């Protein structure tokens, strides 16, 4: 269960966070005089070992995200791609539901890969998108098309600007600014993301997200994710907390064990769903066909927090330059 805070207090905290993020941004840093870091002579010989360990954490985390087709990796990697997802979900004592999504990124020629075209359907986490047949699932998809400009892309910073249109029952223009900061400390990696967006149908909003990665062994990665989204039309925060343990079985098989909580900040902060799931993912043909089995248990507030069990079968087809 979440602790109790007012939405006004949460909003102030988000604004303070964003101000601090700006202070440490590349633009702000240009006007600051760089001071030498404190140093202990006897420890300088260990700097290279520490840097190597930090790089290994980042590489393992990126490999895990790449294998599990994490949107961040696909969005930030160079080159064009198309991903197609076909899902079938079974619930207890209920008919199976189907879902289908497509996501594509096309690099615009002669722009040094800074300008990209995105085409995508709604996220697979949106339960309303699931239908009783594949054809109906495709028909009911909410599509969007957008242009993204990469303002800054370094080892520590990602700054992007997006403008596009969402289609379904009508035309819905939108825009988004996103800044992401990477911090390596010892064997921990911190990824801080701030997004400010606007939809014509919903108004303005923002999302703050913190991902913390830690390599436990060469085959185990722990991740904690905290997220808060504010929509002006709702006037409250959607909150999320996930704890994930990634297990690398081999180069073609991996498992993710995940436990999490979703909540909102009104009237007081409270949980709307507790969930537990397992993702088994296997590369079944070359580098373009993957299969997943995802058993899950949800405890939504609409069901008085009583468990709802399900299992999802997912196929993913990837078209890229590999």
Can you walk me through this structure?
- With about 325 residues, the chain is α+β, with helices and mostly antiparallel strands.
- It has a 14-stranded antiparallel beta barrel.
- The protein has a single domain (about 45-320), classed as Beta Barrel (Porin).
- β4 (about 145-155) and β5 form a beta hairpin.
- The protein is globular.
- The protein has five helices and 14 strands.
- About 15% of the residues are buried.
- Helix content is about 15%, strand content about 55%.
Summarize this structure as a short list of keywords or feature phrases.
17% helix, Porin, alpha+beta, 14-stranded antiparallel β-barrel, 14 strands, 54% strand, 322 residues, 5 helices
CATH architecture: Beta Barrel
Helix content: 10-25%
Q: Structural class from helices and strands?
A: alpha+beta
The strand line-up of the biggest sheet is: 1-2-3-4-5-6-7-8-9-10-11-12-13-14
Structural domains: how many: 1
What is the fold-level CATH name, i.e. the topology? Porin
Terminal Cα span: 44 Å
Low-confidence stretches: 14-34, 124-130, 132-139
- Evaluate the radius of gyration: 21 Å
Question: Main β-sheet: number of strands, strand sense, barrel status?
Answer: 14 strands, antiparallel, barrel
Look at the structure and give the CATH class.
Mainly Beta
- Which whole number gives the mean pLDDT? 78
What's the shape? Answer: globular
Number of strands: 14
Fraction of residues in β-strands: over 45%
What letter string, H or E per element, gives the SSE order?
A: HHHHEEEHEEEEEEEEEEE
Helical element count? 5
Supply the CATH superfamily name. Answer: monomeric porin ompg
